[in-house]
Amino acid sequence: MLQEKQKVVVIGGGITGLTAAYYLQKEADQSGRPIEVTLIEAGHKLGGKIQTVIKDGFVIERGPDSFLARKKSASRLAVDVGMEDKLISNSTGTSYVLVNEKLHPMPGGSVMGIPTQMAPFATTGLFSMQGKVRAAADLVLPKSSERGDQSLGQFFRRRLGDEVVENLVEPLLSGIYAGDIDKMSLMATFPQFYQVEQEHRSLILGMKKTTAAPPVKKGEKKKGVFLTITSGLQSFVDAIEAKLKPESVIKGVKVNSVEKTEGTHYSVILNTGEELCADSIIVATPHNVIQSIFSRYSMFDHLKEMPATSVATVAMAFPKEAIKKDIDGTGFVVSRNSDYTITACTWTHKKWPHTTPDGKVLLRCYVGRAGDEAVVDLSDDQIKKIVLDDLSKIMDIDMAPDFTIVSRWKDAMPQYTVGHKDRVFKLKDSIEHKLPGVFIAGSSFEGIGLPDCIDQGEAAVMHVLNYLS
User: What pathway is it annotated to (predicted)?
Assistant: First the structure.
């Protein structure tokens, strides 16, 4: 006798939802469990912010361009869908911080701005002597007595002082989250720093003890910490999608609402008027979309207040001779103390040589961050002029780019403000009790990097399988 199929609906076709649909279908195929998966995506293609432009021999990422190699879930998934031969590490080189019109090399041995080697920190021009002395106070300061969450800014300013925070820590951390470090949650972003301080008292000494550099054999080139796909990250998305049953993917259709029906079943109501029945649901959309889908359930109301920052990436292609001041390195971040609009720039042709034809240069800049988002709404031409003016001051560029690609991401960077982790825990607990079988995942909750989102997709699959059992 045939078992009745258990129906799982995955809402949202970004990397989190795509991962969940893939691993659910894989489990059903391999175990013979009667699970029917349906993935619904409001847009006309999957992958969310993962978008690649292939143009004139360039490989240009509109959204994320890579992922951390030490977080294994992304490379494991790439291997699983047949992309192993396309995985490549970044080329290593000097990274810089732009402060007061000057590029300063990132101090050797610094981990997210925390020194683990004293000599490079003592000799850098990034900080004044007073700033260096204040940072050294970390060596004698007691550990924090703070037991709840606190802002990244509060934590790092206490340990290292304002100057180190503003000229090194803040450009690095806000570069990841496009956020305000005086509002961002320590426990939701970098709880390991709090743990190091609590265990070792000094953040500097603790990081020195716990951060062992991987051994490099003589003659062996240092390996980059990032990975990407040579054919572009969109091809990674395409490879995952190709593994899904075509009939299981619905694109260009929005979910208007989810209603709990009799027993433990749910009705997923689409904007086409169609209703899908589900035994379990994974919701992998941005937090504001989740709130609108479940607007009748008050437990989701606080998601309306969760901030998100708008950013844009600006890719510019040049002939090599356009760059009069060629700097040896892979890119730079920008201190807020500098009079620049761009927040960071990757010399993509150096960091990822496969992306750029011989004799060409590819610069990828970022604009927009918490408190400075208006630039994202300017026209392409205005953004192009602002970015080119900034780059020209640094690199002495005397030619117009061959082409420019501006990619805007409105409200795309969820902000994990103080208390975020507790709010997410309470929300998931409420969902478990009031909407059993519904699971939320994605960049709004437990990490914004590709591996973090993939991890959440995999975790949601395990929750669904356990629930359906």
Answer: Porphyrin-containing compound metabolism; protoheme biosynthesis
Q: Where in the chain is the domain with CATH 3.90.660.20?
A: 52-93+308-411
Q: Cα dihedral angle (383, 178, 223, 216), rounded to 10 degrees?
A: 140
Give the sign of the dihedral formed by CA 330, CA 333, CA 339, CA 340.
positive
Q: Strand 266-270 relative to strand 275-278: parallel, antiparallel, unpaired?
A: antiparallel
Average pLDDT in the 429-457 region? 97
- Kindly state the tokens that stand for 429: 């607990």
Query: What are residue 53's phi and psi, to 5 degrees?
Result: -110, 125
Would you say 70 and 78 are in contact if contact means Cβ atoms under 8 Å apart? Answer: no
Instruction: Report the half-sphere exposure of 87 (CA within 13 A, side-chain side).
Output: 19
Burial letters for 325-339: b for 16+ Cβ neighbours within 10 Å, e otherwise?
eebebbbbbbbeebe
CATH 3.50.50.60 residue spans of the chain: 6-44+241-306+418-468
Stretch 160-172: mean pLDDT, rounded?
A: 94
Alpha carbons 2 and 221: distance in angstroms, whole number: 57
Query: What is the average per-residue pLDDT within 105-120?
Result: 88
Predicted local confidence at residue 222, as pLDDT: 74
- The helix (H) or strand (E) run that includes residue 363 is strand 360-367
- Asked if 462 contacts 273 with a C-beta cutoff of 8 angstroms, the reply is no
CA geometry: angle 190, 192, 196, nearest 5 deg: 135
Predicted pLDDT at 1 = 41
The token pair that represents 115 in the structure block? 């020194």
Residue 366: closest CA among 327, 334, 335, 394: 334
List 417's β-bridge partners, or say none. 184
The CATH topology of domain 107-210 is protoporphyrinogen ix oxidase, domain 3 (1.10.3110)
Domain boundaries 6-44+241-306+418-468, CATH class: alpha beta
**Is residue 135 a contact partner of residue 127, using CB atoms and an 8 Å limit?**
yes
Q: What is the pTM of this model?
A: 0.95
Which amino acid belongs to residue 297?
Answer: Y
Strand partners, 89: 227
CA distance 106 to 85: 32
Contacts of 53 (CB under 8 A, 6+ apart): 59, 60, 61, 62, 315, 405
In the chain, how many H helices and how many E strands? 16, 22
Residues 143-169: what's their mean pLDDT? 94
Residue 20 is encoded by which pair of tokens?
A: 């969940």
